[in-house]
User: Fold these one by one.
Assistant:
Number 1:
Amino acid sequence: MHNPQLNANGELTHLLSIEGLPRAVINHILDTASSFLKVSDRNVKKVPLLRGKSVFNVFFENSTRTRTTFEIAAKRLSADVINLDVTRSSTAKGETLLDTVDNLVAMHADMFVVRHAASGAPHLIADHLRRLGRNDVHVVNAGDGSHAHPTQGLLDMYTIRHYKKDFTNLAVAIVGDILHSRVARSDIHALTTLGAAEVRAVGPQTLLPTAIERMGVRVCHDLGTGLRDCDVVIMLRLQNERMNGALLPSAREYFRCYGLTPAMLALAKPDAIVMHPGPMNRGVEIDSDVADGPQAVILPQVTFGIAVRMAVMGILAGN
Amino acid sequence: MNRQHLHLRNARLIDPKNSLDARLDLFIADGLVAGIGLPPTGFAAERSIDASGLIACPGLVDLSSRLGGIEPELNAAVAGGVTSLACPPDSKPPLDEPGLVERLVRRSETLGLARVYPIGALTQQLAGEKLAEMNSLARAGCIAFSQAKRAIVDTQLLLRAMQYAATFGYAVRLRPQDQFLTGDGVAHDGEVASRLGLASIPVSAETVAIATALLLASQTGVRLHLSRLSSAAGIALIRQARRSNVQVTCDVAVHHLHLSEMDIGYFDSNARFDPPLRSASDRDALRTAVAEGLAAICSDHTPVDADGKQLPFAEALPGASGLELLLPLTLQWAAQEKLPLALALARITCDPAAILGIEAGLLSVGSPADVCVFDPDETWRVTPDALRSQGKNTPFMGYEVSGRVRMTLVGGRIVFEA
């Protein structure tokens, strides 16, 4: 089966998922991000890489924060950025996803940054563009259903590489609602591709997908077991709607079993870092003392995220 | 298109019902099989057809075909060698009114293509709340009753529906899918759904429903048919029930004999099925069950237009066009499993006919001359243009298949010829 995000030369033409990305491509993105990080520290925070290009942020699902980081990244590359909040416009009038895409292509979009509630929606768009013969239009998945959030996965890898240098000796614990988490899936693919020694999926059975161990992770139902001697802790956001009694009895009980407190964190290695894709639920999945503590790298993740998104868009525009 | 006296020469005649597999001539008169091997006395053929190198078998019988536009789908049926098909009640509106059933029967009789056997709604509007007028529906032409894809959540009502159907000896057909365990799932609860982040349907959605249906069926004595089995565990329950002499039959959609969850690939909406494609070991168990004769094969023909498939996987409509692929995909399965042709053809002729309780799926002297003549070795490519059905939705698009229908007879009339 052909990999829909690589062109015939094996170059990245869309970023749809971390799954199937060769290690060299991931490293290339992280290296490129490293050079862009300096741009954000300069007085003039712009490079002309995407000058004259139009980047359309097409968000079928609300997310001000992610949209903003893509917008900043595109603007720092000198692109024209158009934000479409599709949840309130076209689809409400009955337009299909591909109708929307056709219209935006007619407006000469060069790149789509797509967020959609359905897993696989960016794949559908990329496939549609391929059938139209539009290899010059690129798709960046900004989160699709529970499937993938590849730029978040990449910025997480950037963060880990920044603090830990090498992946091959690392034990990484991913804690929480893995079942519904596109971030977790992207992180797992990235970590296994980059050769992390051990990836642990930690949570109750109701929040872990079936056969998750087939993705190369070790399942731990006990938080202490999951955290013991690990180097990196990735906490996942617990959506409010999961706490209504169907998957979990209550937020209080969840915090008691799976909340990251200083005492639990003490089980990890002393230099373990704590990550979170945001926005955090303090007191639900993470204690404020940890979130604001010395091991947390949650804000650097945000800074790195801009550079990683610049790198992705820059590389796609060049291929 | 009139009822001619036909002489079909030199075909390999395969009639699984009568354990016949031989090179014999077939003689047809007045819409019936008039002679096998030898003509009846005084037979004068108006048309003699040379079928050298071809196989003639009973017209195929399909346990479930959705018709949508009736004429194109019945044309697709006869182009696929299907001469009798059962139509599930989840049309719009659902088949819960005798008038609707009569209209469907009349319309299909007027067209004179494949014979259509309506399956009536078991409950009004298929809502699972009130029993449908089964007796009136049966008088209008329904041969069994089902909920199509809808479940009866209220188990007391399910019991009552079976009791009422059993009163008149009607067969009840159920798709074993527990509504709660199915939830908003769109793919098998396994590796692929976990990786792709698709809401999943556990095997227990099927087995729990099978267990419920089997227990209520043995309590009521109803004739029960379970449709579209998808799992090894489901098959195991049926096998066990049959050993305990529970009267139950089942079928498997032809797509499920060939595909597994892996065929979803990168969210291919043509691989979205209801029930979902399950694991490779489930698929293997289905293949074994069909080979054993525990389950019949069904096309589960579900034409869906492009708009219904060009959507993200979870939003796309489930199902595939199947009438024209039923024979080639059955032949492919038989070839892969090294099974005799007669055994394979039984699963799409006499077995489903017995389940439906109709006089079809056989070539005895005196039986209706519903015949499928095909070239088992002719290959063809599945393309949108090659399909007569309005549904171009199939995961086999672009595939090369073997087995080409050359002629289809319904009641002695040639309704398709290629």
Note: Residues 69 and 390 of chain B are 8 Å apart (CA to CA).
Number 2:
Amino acid sequence: MYMFKYVLKRIGLMIMTFCIIMLMCFVLIKLLPIPINVGLGVDKELVEANLRARGYYDPIMVQLFSYLKRIFTEGDFGIGVNMPGYVNQPVLDAFLTRLPPTVLINVYATIIGVPIGLGLGILAALKKNKWQDHTISTLVILLISVPSIVYAFLIQYIFCFRLQWFPLMMETGTDYFSWEMFRSMLPAVFSLCLGSIAGYARYTRAELTEVLTSEFMLLARTKGLTRGQATVRHALRNSMVPIFPMILSEFVAVLSGSMIIENIFSIPGVGMLYLTSIQVVDYDFFLLLSGFYTLVGLLAGIIVDISYGFIDPRIRMGAK
Amino acid sequence: MINKKRIAAVALSLCMATGVAVLAACGNDEQPYDYETRARTGWEDSKQYTYKTYTAQLPSVWTELNTSDANDLELIQYINSSFFEFNYEFDENGEIVPGGFTVDYSAATKLEDVTKDYVGKYGLTEEDAKEGGHAFAITLRDDLEWEDGTPITAADFEYTMQQQLSPNYLFSQASNYYSGNYIIHNAQNYVYQGQSGWFAADTPYTEYDPATLDAKIVFTMASSTENEEKYDGATSSIRASMNAGDMSLENFVAALQSTYSFPVSLEQVKQLEGKTMAQIKADSNLNAVWSTVIGWWQSQPNEELDFFVVEYTYPEMEWDDNVGFFADDEGRLVIVIDNTIHPLDANGDLTYEAAYYLQSFPLVKRELWEKLEDRTSTPWKNAYNTASVANSASWGPYKLTNFQGGTTYTLSRNEKWFGYGLEQYAKQYQTDTIEVRYIPEWNTAWSAFQQGDLDGIGLDSTIINEYRTSSRAYFTPETYTYSLNLQSNPAAYTKGKNIMLKYDDFRQALSLSIDRNDYCAVNEPSSTGALGYLNELYYYDVENGGVYRDTDQAREALLNAYGATNNGDGTWTVGSVTYDDIDEAVNSLTGYNITLARQLMQKAYEEAKAAGDYADGDAIVLTIGVQEETANQERNRAYLENAFNQALVGTPMEGKLKIEFTKTTASNWNTDFMNGKYDICFSAWGSAAFNPNYLLGATQIWDANRLATAWDPAGVSVTLDLDVELDMVIAGTDYEQYVNEDGSITMDLKLWDACLQGLAQDDGGRNVPFNFSAAPTEVQLQILAAEETAILEQYWAIPMFSSTLASLISYKCEYISYEYNTFMGFGGVRYMSFNFDDTEWEAFVQADKDHILNYTF
């Protein structure tokens, strides 16, 4: 019951926060000058008349009302005005079309990165100060130190261009679950997850090392558990309390897509859209994407908090 | 233990480094490839040929009604047809005549001047009938059809133009038909019909009639933002005339006072704000202020309207019998225009204007258009030719067969196209499929090209020197000339920073400190240095191949602007060298004259010091606007900073100049610059290669497009002694005031521009005294060159380089010619031939030992 109330309260706060952020985004973007770039021979007054008919010159609160009305009555999030490649196209359609590749690549990166990262971290912790630990630590430092753009270029050059094990770019089409599509996503997936692997490994090693030296681990061994049993049943579970939220937050962070990775591997994802929407001042794209990322961030916060309770039953949010 | 750790780290690093080095060292083939260059076989060839290319930005809307950019046009060219089209001129041996062209019928079979048939209608008079060139009938082929076999008639074009000009859609491209090269009768009134609201008074009204207007027109000099609530953001045209942007009323009045000696205070202007003319005239105090204002401004009738806005509703208008675009009773497409064009010569043959002005008109498939029409929004929306194959229709040689947003699109042969089977297209259109892949990252595209997955790529500056001599390299000159713009807005000047920019000598010295050839070698390796605003691609006489830049007038313009001396005996002195003829003198120009630059800097220093704008020890800090600070931008910044400082050597300002970056955005870089946010920006103007008079005027003289907001071309007088009869005067104008005693003519730049272009009014709304658009070529050249000289000598926009694109074409395909032709480019897909079909090409790539093709040969 405590948990239920706590979740309800958090959802309420989330909705309020979301509304405040979106209101700020709406007002701030509308305060920017309306970009009107007309070429030679184009009637600027006609362009302005078009924008005026769309309500661009109405008072901001009137625009906000119209915007919300359109969304809630027609599901219309507007159309692109300046967004390259999406001018005069519904922004929601464009966004939904581009979301799957971003989500898939990040899901794959998480699926591949988490077990490898945790595995390396566990191995390093169990073999602390042995050559395995040193090798893994060196690798981790190397991977953390180098930005993902460098991995991306190296992976593309070595495995896609020279060795030609993978295509240079993501396959075309929307058959996202075919083998060819999966194979074409792997270079981007590896580029994205190498840094995460290093992060998971380092964090897991640190947490597990600490837990392994705890007194309760000694107690578990003296109770007759093997080292493996004690590690899996007690040490790992305890060390997961801070690691699991980290995995979630990492997933959320990469959900926004990586502009650079998407560019390099020609992935039709959402990474570029947000930045471009700000650069070209495309209101409708900006607001939809702001709303999406705000919502994802807020939801992630709630999920991370709730996840503590599932990982460690001793933790009960909202309990007095 | 420590040793083991070190050993592990070193071993790992060595493994990685070795791996990369080994892979990098994998050599390409050392010998050129052995393959056969095949002759064109055209659309008759039964093998499969795919042309693969890429784009950094996919198209949004591939219909002319609402196209947004060049990426849209790239697709449109394949799915549309032309009524009249340019073609190569071939000699009797079938060889291309360099620089030559012909104009052929394509989707049309006949073009007639029918001006006399419409006298009394569409505003045409007997005088127009005598003149001709106002109305044309285009007879279409009778076998035109859409990709699904639906026939196309002239009525479809009329329907489409109705959509193009529909007030329900308010397409910005509608203005192509009333403010472009020709003005379709009533096109503007049709699209504006029903528009109700506040407008600059001189928009709906061209004449000031006190009796009817005094009670309606309202005085305002405030900005659009300030007028948002009162007048829906409408502003009076005085602001547009002075290129004030959204500058506040206070700043605007201050700028007018400092730059143009505006004789009225801000308080007095505020007293006039919001008053109708009737109210002003009724109040003696207000009337006195108004008299001062209009006395300061007016040089032509009706200029009172420049200070007022008016609430107005454009009247409703029926299409039939009003708009000069319709299908006639004989099934021909008729266009009636307010100006004149000459697409037919005296023999009735097509001139270049047929392919230039009347190449095509927009066309939509009516059934699909109406199906996709969304009338629920304001303005209406239509998804025609956007986002998917289902929304698309073609009547060109190719049709869209695949479109995936953000990824790719594919065009395949449209078997219904009328051209397949025609003799005039024999051995052409060999390409069966065109695949365009979205690749935003150039390095990825370059890798794909080397792997044989792309058939063409533009060369990046990092590899251009390695590949520029490749047998597969070709170079595409562009009309675009990039200029270095300097801040002119006095409100943006700060002592100790950028105030030196206000001095003409300082700006000229900056210009003379840059060797354009050296600049290009360092910063723009594939481009060529530019000294004028119009490059070698601008024709003043298209039919006879007359290139403006090759004329003596244009050459003299450059020599005069860059400090050369005409010795009067046919020789010219540039710097310390005297050249026997003008060609040599012009060829020696690089824009660089450091001696003169330093002299000018010294003069600027003395003038600024005397005026209190510069004190010894002051820094000169100029800001350059960039969207991001890349290595290329830094190289460019450092180059300019070094060059400018060289011009300061030996003066008290030596070593004092710095250039710093300022952030701007892709959408607001120009307004940021015009509003004084930064001091230096690069901009380029191009296109309109057959109309240099228009391009120079529209981009450098008209307020709407000029970046030097505080420079007024109407304040620059130019005197020319023209070898022309004064029967080119416009009746009813006060032309005598411009004619000097010796017969020469003195006018300001805006008037010269309007006269040269044959406009009724100049950019400031003044009536134009002469029409030189039909003057002899030599006279037009003289005026154009004088305009260019005068603009260059202001040094607000300093030409730097003309863009040339360096590209590679794959071994798979060939252009018909690698010599650029202004009219045909390199022949495009139309004339492309293939050395390999798709299967053979795959085998060719696989035969390479690394499957990576070498293009250095």
Note: Residues 91-126 of chain A form the longest helix (36 residues).
Number 3:
Amino acid sequence: MTKVQNNRAWLLILPMLVLVAFSAIIPLMTVVNYSVQDVFDANTRFFTGTEWFETMLNDSALQAALLRQFAFSMTILAIEVPLGIGIALLMPKRGWQASAVLILITLPLLIPWNVVGSIWQIFTRGDIGLMGWGIRELGYSYNITRNPVDAWATIILMDVWHWTPLIALLCYSGLRAIPEAYYQAARIDRASRWAVFRYIQLPKLTNVLVIGVLLRFMHSFMIYAEPFVLTGGGPGSSTTFLSQSLTTMAIGQQDLGPSAAFSLIYFLIILLVSWVFYTAIMNMQKDDATGGHRHDA
Amino acid sequence: MAEIMLKALAHTYVSNPQSPADYAIREMTHVWHQGGAYALLGPSGCGKSTLLNIISGLLQPSDGDVVFDSRIVNELPPEERNIAQVFQFPVIYDTMTVFDNLAFPLRNIRTPEAKVRERVAEVADILDLVPLLRRKAKNLTADEKQKVSMGRGLVRDDVSAILFDEPLTVIDPQLKWKLRRKLKEIHERFNITMIYVTHDQLEASTFAEKIAVMYEGQVVQFGTPRELFEKPAHTFVGFFIGSPGMNFLEMTVTESGLSFGKLPIPVDPRLLELAHRSGSNNVKLGIRPEFVEVHEEVGSNTLSVKVEDIQDLGTYSILSFRLNGVSLKARLGEEHAIRGEYAHVRFPEASTHLYIDECRVEVGND
């Protein structure tokens, strides 16, 4: 068989190329376009090079928002991942109880973001909100519009309530996929409950956890509607996260150049963190250098 | 070290069993002697894995007792039974190295680390795992993984029996014989009772000294591979062991004797007596294809049969022929050729067996 040389076959990928162009490349290039120019009106514009990027990186308000953003994402990951695993381990394995618990657990995931914000906004009010009223009755002067600590704790609690079910569901499916023989072998090997978790369940959950952590990181790093509705970014700017800063700048102040530069930085940070995280996890699963695959085979 | 006895054991997955068919294991009493190499052979769904899980303690029998050295262990969980089990699919601890995998059962019972190292080295040596000890178990091939899971059973020196549940299913054919030989070697070296579940008669007969053939939740015969071949105690054994399986001729019992259709079959009068006494009309004559004598010429007591097909299998061939409308088979040696449409067959009496209600009957001193 001789190989047929026919470059017209490249045309076959054209539809895909067009689709990707409209869904990703063109919007992204528009942003790039704005980020390197200062646009006054349809006819007046100046090329600014990396100026907007430098301004953005040196902006102390944005730096603070970025730090806040990282603090938020890491905090909710640190709570939601172990909690999700724990819930998945406790969920019933079969029967109607399993279905009932699955539905109950999934409910928060079905609520739209700004509705979650509204629910919690009302829930935490000191006068008519059950939680706000309850905490005040216990003697603590809880107030998310005055006290930054209260605001933070509430936003974190809200996110944990909204998104831990996702981790729990992923882990539950991962746990169900472990063949019974593993548990049987562990019993015969006299493994403790902890050893079963550490050496069978956790390793088998690695893949779903990678997906779960990546999703949760990206999601939480882009969080907007929930804190916006609940606290409006306050008190002060204590709960103003990156996307809210960006919206204020782009929509509120119409600063297209700086916000475009900021968007790109924002995007690259998410990309970078996700990549580092993914690579680190994947490397953990490889053989250590002392026994590479080829060496002793 | 233990002798494993199953005493009036039965098991059902149904909460309210009505008939014997509801039982995965029908009532049986069986002894596995200390140090024996046994196989549990049977088709899928005959209850052999259930039986194995009852012995290891993963399942509680619904009736009867499991006795280890005259101690009833029904209530004991697997971890207290000093038993190791190797599963169909290799079970290894992914994130651990091969060394840690082998050390795991010892570390779980807080064995001193020096002793752990000594035992692991010994077992790794037997299983040819020494070069792999520092590798992550996850990256091994299927046969290496299966050796690791076997090794975990061997490291504990309190293990009195190892149970294998079709352990070679996922192993490449060319590696199977190697692993099987390894198993035999281990058996000879340690004085461990081994019970090996399989549906492959070749695997069973190369591994085991004695084979228990299971059929519909019952052990229908327990014997050496040779006994299973020469004297199948049950028609199922005749059919399941051997390739092709045993020929069966359905007999009609009359006052004067047995006949196959219109063909009278000469039979020991004492056997005829048994057939009469049983009152059953399920009487069969069985003969293995290997024992059917085939001649080209008419001889004494031969029957002429029509040749249907001859299948050449290299070193031997299988002759299919028709007798009274029933298709039967005979195995022919390499040099033995049958030309022509008809052959003359004889069923030597020493190799024919009589089955009443599917079970072999015999009379003394034959």
Note: Chain A touches chain B at residues 179, 181-182, 184-185, 187-192, 195, 199-200, 203-204, 285-288, 290-291, 293, 296 (CB under 8 Å).
